Amino acid sequence: MKKARVLAVDDEEVIGYLFQRIGANMGVHVDWVTSGEKALQMMQGKQYDVILSDYRLPEMNGESFYQEINNRDPHMLKKLIFITGDSLNSRTINFFKKRQIPYLTKPFDLDLLQELIVKLTQCKNA
Prior knowledge:
Order of helices and strands: EHEHEHEHEH
Shape: globular
Strand order of the largest sheet: 2-1-3-4-5
Strand content: 15-25%
Structural class: alpha/beta
CATH topology: Rossmann fold
Radius of gyration: 13 Å
CATH superfamily: Response regulator
Number of domains: 1
Largest sheet: 5 strands, parallel
CATH class: Alpha Beta
CATH architecture: 3-Layer(aba) Sandwich
Number of helices: 5
Distance between the termini: 11 Å
């Protein structure tokens, strides 16, 4: 069985390493990048089963990143999970709910994150 691939996007090094450890424990491959631009470049060359992204990124926010994915490869939107520390901002939460984007709030529950990854990858080994 092919190993599931996750693209993790977060500018915080500790979070990036955490995503990689979670992936290793689940038996999925995780590519970690620190910006939305780098993530979009990675998506040009590889297929991903899940895109796990912080909502607040250095060059673009989550809405801009979402729009770029929509412009380039709309079917990938079904594979997107956002993570945010901005859970009190009603505009951010409304953005997620209106587009039915799964999201987790920081600090996030590791079990819930793993459940979402499994759900999106449909992996038997995860």
